[in-house]
Design goal:
The protein is 28% helix and 22% strand. The chain has 294 residues and is an alpha/beta fold. It has one domain: 3-Layer(aba) Sandwich (Aminopeptidase). The strands form two sheets. Strands 1-2-4-3-5-10-6-9 form an eight-stranded mixed β-sheet, with helices on both faces. A two-stranded antiparallel ribbon has the order 7-8. A hairpin with a 5-residue loop joins strand 1 and strand 2. The protein starts with 23 loop residues before the first helix and ends in a 14-residue tail after the last helix.
Length: 294
């Protein structure tokens, strides 16, 4: 065990992912500031650590009902979201003075450590098909625990906004070619595309260092329109939050990765810090607000 944190010693090691990601212990320790600010840490699930013991999957809540949900680290080859959320902790403390927040920054620490997309079972840790009527049972233990938590373990109000920071490592599919570099967005939920948070995030990415790719087809066969895919049915936790909890907008941001370090990880983290600011809006902007009626 790591003497400083009580975590398995694996958490103090620098992962050999080729993208210069920091040890897991740095991510976990960043969120200790939330606890000092009065937030609750909830252990939603665990994953096995290579040296023995468990890697905790934690959620952080400051107040209920929750008005905004932030998610990162679902896929192990996509570290920028988790790292951006760790860097954003001081701003989360400030945001939490006016808003109930749920932060799930690192839902797949095992994948982060091993630089593998899925969890140890080979399935997505937040797959929600079993609660969306498409599968008879959860894809893996983590998926069962995480989806149960967002449905029954915390009060998320209908209309809460969601931001899920992903990346798209297209190098995982060597036979797939995506023309262009930058980012794209999924937007799901009732009138979600018209929501001010959706517009702000899109505008932020359009002028970012990883600018919005306006047209193309993802490796999952989804067609971009003006840089956005609307209301996809992908079995993700994002779809679950939109369709079963009533969250809107549910915004999923993807940076295109052509290699583990291309674009460089620090650049991707900076872009996601800008996206987080855009999601919440500038001082004086009402957030979260009800989506405009169509």
């Amino acid at each position: 065990m790591s003497s400083a944190t009580g975590l398995p010693s694996d958490c103090d090691l620098s992962p050999s992912a080729g993208d210069e990601r920091p040890p897991l212990s740095q991510i976990y320790s960043a969120f200790e500031s939330l606890l000092r600010a009065g937030w609750r840490a909830i252990e939603v699930a665990t994953q096995p650590a290579p040296s023995g013991g468990a890697l905790p999957i934690r959620a952080y809540v400051n107040a209920e009902p929750v008005g905004a949900v932030l998610i990162g680290g679902i896929h192990g080859r996509e570290p920028a979201g988790a790292l951006a959320l760790a860097r954003y902790v001081p701003r989360l403390v400030e945001r939490g003075h006016k808003l109930g927040l749920l932060v799930m920054p690192l839902l797949n620490p095992w994948g982060y450590l091993h630089h593998i997309r899925y969890g140890p079972s080979g399935a997505s840790v937040s797959d929600s098909d079993h609660l969306l009527g498409r599968a008879p049972e959860p894809a893996c233990p983590e998926a069962a625990a995480i989806t149960n938590f967002v449905m029954d373990g915390v009060r998320i109000r209908p209309g809460a906004a969601v931001l899920d920071l992903h990346e798209d490592p297209v190098y995982e599919a060597p036979d797939y070619q995506f023309e262009g570099s930058g980012s794209y967005i999924y937007v799901t939920g009732a009138d979600a595309l018209a929501h001010p948070a959706s517009r702000r995030v899109r505008d932020c990415l359009e002028r970012s260092r990883l600018p919005l790719v306006l047209e193309g087809v993802t490796r999952f066969g989804e067609r971009l329109s003006d840089g956005i895919i609307v209301d996809t049915a992908d079995g993700s936790i994002d779809e679950l939050l939109a369709r079963r909890v009533g969250c809107s907008p549910v915004i999923t941001v993807e940076n295109l990765l052509h290699a583990p370090d291309s674009p460089p990880l620090p650049q991707r983290v900076e872009v996601y810090l800008d996206v987080l600011e855009a999601f919440f809006g500038a001082p004086g902007e009402e957030f979260p607000c009800a989506p405009p009626s169509s």
